[in-house]
Amino acid sequence: MSVVDDVVSVRLDDEKNALIILDQTLLPGETKYLTLTTQQQIWDAIYRLQVRGAPAIGIAAAYGVYLAAKQSSATEWAALHADFTEARKFLASARPTAVNLFWALDRMQRCLDACEGQPVSRCKAALLAEAHAIREEDEQVCKAIGENALALLRPGMGLLTHCNAGTIATAKYGTALAPIYLGQDRGYGFRVFADETRPLLQGARLTAWELQQAGVDVTLLCDDMCSIVMKNGWVDACLVGCDRVAANGDTANKIGTSTLSIVASRYGVPFYVCAPTSTIDMNCTSGKDIQIELRQDSEISTLWYKTPQAPAGIKAYNPAFDVTDNEFITAIITEKGVVYPPFEQGLAEIMK
Ligand code: MRU
């Protein structure tokens, strides 16, 4: 599992007052780490998807607000709180859909709130410990999701995944890719199909790269090929990650996930969503409450091409995510266990 052990997508260099991230926009061609020291740099890295994947965004933001507090010249709690809150609001505006961003920032906020009246040095130490805890817990959570998912799979299965819910999208292991890595270690011999994931190609650039590095049998597909491989009987299960799960099980994930779920349902292929409980948002009653990020037209029309592949000035619609209706989801696999329909009941139980 060398890619899982060797690649760290987000970490803190406390001595340098810096967040170190793997620049995911340069993969697979270049493995380059960026040193981010300002709030603007961290915001930009999240917005540009240099750090991406719901859990990784949350970890980056947690370290980001810690750095804001550390760099604050405040001499007492109230002033530190004001500086922190400004940074929290700023980083929260980077991307709207992945709830882990808000979950991690809220958790950091509660940590500082609980320090009221304490010397600023102690407040900063508490924030550092909380940010580290968020990172470390994510690693454990992903491993547990991997074990829970692996228990539903059998050696030799064909698996289809969309976007990148791998080790670089998390602290370690990933969510949807965690069972594949654990299975690889245990000789399961999975055959994995990775959707390229238009328009930003997280599947082609990141998932195909990660799995190939790990020695997994991986085949790249264009997004519109999911039907033929399922009809051919090559896919035994779909495994995807998520950015936000509503209380009724509706799930926002990378654009195209909903299409995949509908095709899977047509061919009777189980469709599993791998979700840390930090991605479950009980405040959203259904998928209708989830804000979908809209990104620039250029990501579709020009970004990947030497010459534009669409007429200049063409309008484009570029939602980064879609919502998979709960009826197409076989199960939601969390670190606390596997939730089956009816999801309202199961998720409420697990989120108690
Ligand atoms: O726009 P991205 O690349 O951040 O979208 C990421 C996804 O859709 C992932 O599937 C999701 O965040 C889960 S990552 C474990």
Descriptive report:
By secondary structure, the chain is an alpha/beta fold. It contains 12 helices and 14 strands. The protein has helices at residues 2-6, 39-47, 54-71, 77-92, 99-113, 120-150, 178-185, 202-213, 226-231, 257-267, 298-301, 343-350; strands spanning 10-13, 18-22, 33-36, 158-161, 191-195, 217-221, 237-240, 244-246, 251-254, 271-274, 280-281, 321-324, 331-334, 337-339. It starts with a helix and ends with a helix. It binds 5-S-methyl-1-O-phosphono-5-thio-D-ribulose. 5-S-methyl-1-O-phosphono-5-thio-D-ribulose binds next to helix 3 and strand 9.
| C-alpha-based Rg, rounded | 20 Å
Structural class: alpha/beta
**Helical element count?**
12
Strand order of the largest sheet: 6-5-4-7-10-13-14
Number of strands: 14
Q: Quick one: overall form?
A: globular
What is the averaged pLDDT score? 97
Low-confidence stretches: none
Order of helices and strands: HEEEHHHHHEHEHEHEEEHEEHEEEH
In this structure, how is the largest beta sheet organized? Answer: 7 strands, mixed
Structure ligands: 5-S-methyl-1-O-phosphono-5-thio-D-ribulose
Helix content: 40-55%
Measured between the Cα atoms of the first and last residue, the distance is 34 Å
GO molecular function: S-methyl-5-thioribose-1-phosphate isomerase activity
EC number: 5.3.1.23
Keywords: Amino-acid biosynthesis, Isomerase, Methionine biosynthesis
Active site: 243 (proton donor)
Brief descriptors of the model:
alpha/beta, globular, Methylthioribose-1-phosphate isomerase, 16% strand, 352 residues, NagB/RpiA_transferase-like
